[in-house]
Write a structure and sequence with these properties.
- It holds the Pfam family PDZ_6.
- This is Periplasmic serine proteinase Do.
- Keywords: Hydrolase, Protease.
- Helix 3 packs parallel to helix 6.
- A hairpin with a 5-residue loop joins strand 4 and strand 5.
- The protein folds into 4 domains: 90 residues, Thrombin, subunit H (Beta Barrel), CATH 2.40.10.10; 85 residues, Beta Barrel (Thrombin, subunit H), CATH 2.40.10; 94 residues, PDZ domain (Pdz3 Domain); 100 residues, Pdz3 Domain.
- The chain has 412 residues and is of the alpha+beta class.
- It has a 6-stranded antiparallel β-barrel with strand order 1-2-3-6-5-4. A 6-stranded antiparallel β-barrel has the order 7-8-9-12-11-10. Strands 14, 15, 16, 17, 18 and 19 form a 6-stranded antiparallel sheet that branches.
- It is built from 11 helices and 26 strands.
- It starts with a helix and ends in an 8-residue tail after the last strand.
């Protein structure tokens, strides 16, 4: 019972194998017919209700995503959301019982030379385990003309096709990364997305705004104090459920609805599947050990339900107003915008490579400072004409634009 054996045994039930078929086109000759290829990969359970994080390229274009649990049970998964920039995706299976959630560490204190373990579906050999060390940190890797990764962990643990989406573990059996890439032709050079990035993106993909059309108004970050993860509140949206119940910037949220809170993802998990108007218990620490118990009442997402439905059905997005002070802090030349909180797979927005985290600042000739602006646009004659409409987004303080097609739908 070595430390590596114990580490693997502690997480093996949280790791799943992913199989599927996708159609790809061949460019070798004009007129070549598309062909079916077998795809494989790995995923990790991040919520006991069957939510699984994996790489987006593992499930991209797969019509029937088959997920096999550690006990051999196989389910067909649904693609919930994905983030193309980081190559992460959230899928879900309707399991018959709660699934064990992966134990999570942090990538903020990793050291070159540290022992790591990779687990995955390497070349279809399920639950393969390899070990190595961290070779380097903060690597930028270009794997194709269209895919570039940033801030990766480099390891010499064997990472092969099929390992993608699986966990990279530390010696304590905590996930510290998601395996993502291997250099073609190289030996002993593999890469993983740091777990701090994974948890941040997972919280966006699994947000209650996207899945339940609720909101809480909390923006937070995880800090490790004496090796213990703490979820610190960075800001609270005005008039949000969190603001109304008394949550303040600087608070440390310790539990929500009896679930211990370490990450923003935990807040989304705790609030998921509750009803509008339902009261949820929230505990936090303020100042020097001042503990408080609050009652957060869930509200529907900002804006009328008709607007929420229209933006989702017509464009494939859900949005949230960005506070004015946040815009000013970014020194942007725009007066305001709507943050993209969810993007529907294969929607007009997804086809235009709009991502979660982008800020919609304009459509056609109008600004999109508030949900009222977007509602006006969706009810306008330009939408009724069913022609592509110009959109403008902010990403990393850079402006991008394009023409987005709209569905055969209009707000009434």
């Amino acid at each position: 019972m070595t430390p590596i054996v114990k580490a693997v045994q502690g997480v093996k039930e949280s790791i799943v194998n992913i199989h599927g078929h996708k159609t790809i086109s061949t460019a070798s000759a004009i007129g070549d017919a598309p062909r079916q290829v077998n795809g494989m990969g790995t995923g990790v359970v991040v919520d006991e209700r069957g939510y699984i994080i994996t790489n987006q390229h593992v499930v991209e274009g797969v019509r029937r995503i088959q997920v096999t649990l550690h006990d051999g049970t196989t389910y067909v998964a649904q693609l919930i959301a994905f983030d193309e920039k980081t190559d992460l995706a959230l899928i879900k299976v309707e399991a018959e019982k709660p699934l064990p959630v992966v134990k999570t560490g942090t990538s903020s204190d990793l050291m070159p030379g540290e022992t790591v373990i990779a687990v995955g579906n390497a070349y279809g050999y399920e639950n393969s385990v390899t070990r190595g060390i961290i070779s380097a940190l903060h690597r930028t890797v270009q794997v194709s003309d269209t895919q570039k990764y940033y801030d990766l962990i480099q390891t010499d643990a064997s990472i092969n096709p099929g390992n993608s989406g699986g966990p990279l573990l530390n010696i304590d059996g905590e996930m510290i990364g998601i395996n993502v890439a291997v250099r073609v032709g190289a030996q002993g050079i593999g890469f993983a997305i740091p777990v701090d990035t994974v948890m941040d993106i997972a919280s966006q993909l699994m947000s209650i705004e996207r899945l339940d059309r609720h909101w809480h108004g909390i923006t937070g970050e995880t800090k490790f104090v004496d090796g213990v993860a703490q979820m610190h509140v960075k800001s609270v949206d005005p008039n949000s459920p969190a603001s109304l119940c008394g949550v303040q910037a600087g608070d440390v949220i310790t539990s929500v609805d009896e679930l211990d809170i370490c990450w923003m993802l935990d807040i989304e998990r705790a609030l998921l599947d509750h009803e509008t108007g339902e009261e949820v218990s929230l505990k936090l620490q303020r100042g020097e050990g001042d503990e408080k118990s609050l009652a957060l009442v869930l509200q529907g997402q900002g804006g009328a339900n008709a607007l929420v439905d229209a933006a989702w059905d017509l464009l494939g997005i859900r949005v949230q107003m960005v506070p004015t002070n946040e815009f000013r802090s970014n020194n942007t030349r725009y007066r305001g915008g709507l943050k993209i909180t969810a993007v529907k797979a294969y929607s007009p927005a997804a086809r235009q490579q709009i991502r979660v985290g982008d800020v919609l600042v304009g459509m056609h000739e109008w600004e999109t400072i508030s949900v009222d602006n977007l509602e006006y646009i969706l009810k306008s004659d330009i939408i009724a004409q069913k022609r592509p409409i110009k959109f403008y987004i902010l990403r990393d303080n850079e402006t991008y634009y394009g023409d987005i097609a709209v569905a055969n739908y209009r707000v009434r």
